[in-house]
Amino acid sequence: MKKIFILFCLVISVISKSQTSSELSESFLKKMVREQFDSCQTFFDTSITDKINASIMQQMWSKLPTYVGEYKSYDNIRSEKNDTTDIVFIMCAFEKMKLDLKFSYNRYHKIIALFFAPPKSKNAYVLPEYYVPSKLYETKLTVKTGTFEMPGILCVPNNVTDPPVVILIAGSGANDKDETAGPLKSLKDIALGLASNGIASLRYDKRTLTYGVRLLDQNVGINEEVIEDAVSAVNILRNHPLTKNSKIFVAGHSLGAMCAPLIATKSKDIKAIIMLAGNARMLEDVVVDQYTYFSTLDSTDKEIKEAIKKVKLQVATVKDPKELKKADAKDLPLGASSYYWQSLKNYDQVKTAKKVKQPILVLQGERDYQVTMVDFNWWKKELSTDKKNKFISYPKLNHQFMKGEGLSSPAEYEKPNNVEQKVILDMVDFVKSFK
Question: pTM of the prediction?
Answer without folding.
Answer: 0.77
